[in-house]
């Protein structure tokens, strides 16, 4: 084997190793998703509880609290309401209205009051339901603060934002906010019927197992191809040599009749 063939073979082996690593990564993600699904099922089945009892004094909604039902009582601060743009619920584009609910201890929690579907191409909702006055009791599902990497979508700008992020909202709104938010399910007094509700969580294993099978199949395909071309490549080299030898023999055979053809000529010239 020459250097070029060895290099190609090493490249195929590296490719197969990468495919195996990606397959194992998908299986790891599958395990994480199964664990998260168990937490979600447990939280959905738990009885509603006061917010501070669920998250504790840290005031941070973590993955372990996702979809847990919490109950809070306070009053809305309508002056610090934020409209969430570019939201999508059940494949419908629209807006979500987030209003801080100030609690009796002075802390506040962001409440996602509901979804308003976009009617056409408006950049802002045509009608935002009014905030209830006085004391309000909200029951909702806890969600951790949304994060968008290096983007600033979680920082309100002129009353709008793209993400719901407690710490980023707190900097602009000047409130002592919980790190996370509450996705409303029930309110007393009742929430405005103009708001659309939110779907529940997706509790399934996702496509990770089948993605893992695909990567493992690609790895086997690469190894199988390497074995096949190693065998056929060796036979191809021998066939090439045989062809060259055969070609040489044919050339020799072609020259011989020319030599015999010259013999009668010499004989004729001798007769003359």
From TrEMBL:
Keyword Repeat in annotation: no
Chain positions covered by the region annotation Disordered: 235-272
Highest taxon, organism lineage: Bacteria
Keyword Lipid biosynthesis in record: no
PROSITE patterns per the UniProt record, alphabetical: SURF1 (PS50895)
UniProt record similarity statement: Belongs to the SURF1 family.
Main location: membrane
Transmembrane segments: 209-229
Annotated keywords: Cell membrane, Membrane, Transmembrane, Transmembrane helix
Compartment(s) of residence: Cell membrane; Membrane
InterPro entries given in the database record: Surf1/Shy1, Surf1/Surf4
Pfam families per record: SURF1 (PF02104)
Record-given protein name: SURF1-like protein
Membrane topology field: Multi-pass membrane protein
């Amino acid at each position: 084997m020459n250097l070029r063939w060895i290099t190609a073979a090493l490249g195929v082996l590296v490719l197969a190793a990468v495919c195996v690593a990606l397959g194992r990564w998908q299986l790891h993600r599958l395990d994480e998703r199964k664990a998260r699904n168990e937490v979600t099922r447990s939280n959905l089945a738990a009885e509603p509880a006061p917010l501070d009892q669920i998250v504790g004094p840290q005031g941070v909604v973590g993955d372990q609290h996702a979809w847990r039902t919490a109950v809070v009582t306070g009053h809305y601060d309508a002056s610090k309401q934020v409209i969430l743009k570019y939201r999508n619920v059940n494949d419908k584009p629209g807006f979500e209205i987030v209003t801080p609910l100030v609690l009796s201890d002075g802390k506040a929690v962001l409440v996602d009051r509901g979804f308003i579907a976009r009617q056409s191409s408006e950049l802002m909702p045509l009608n935002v339901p009014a905030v209830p006055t006085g004391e309000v009791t909200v029951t909702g599902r806890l969600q951790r603060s949304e994060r968008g990497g290096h983007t600033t979508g979680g920082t309100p700008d002129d009353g709008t934002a793209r993400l719901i992020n407690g710490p980023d909202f707190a900097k602009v709104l000047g409130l002592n906010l919980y790190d996370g938010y509450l996705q409303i399910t029930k309110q007393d007094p009742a929430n405005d019927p103009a708001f659309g509700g939110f779907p529940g969580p997706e509790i399934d294993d996702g496509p990770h197992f089948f993605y893992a099978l695909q990567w493992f199949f690609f790895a086997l395909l690469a190894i199988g191809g390497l074995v096949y071309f190693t065998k056929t490549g060796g036979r191809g080299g021998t066939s090439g040599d045989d062809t060259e030898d055969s070609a040489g023999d044919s050339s020799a055979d072609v020259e011989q009749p020319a030599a015999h053809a010259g013999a009668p000529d010499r004989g004729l010239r001798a007769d003359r």
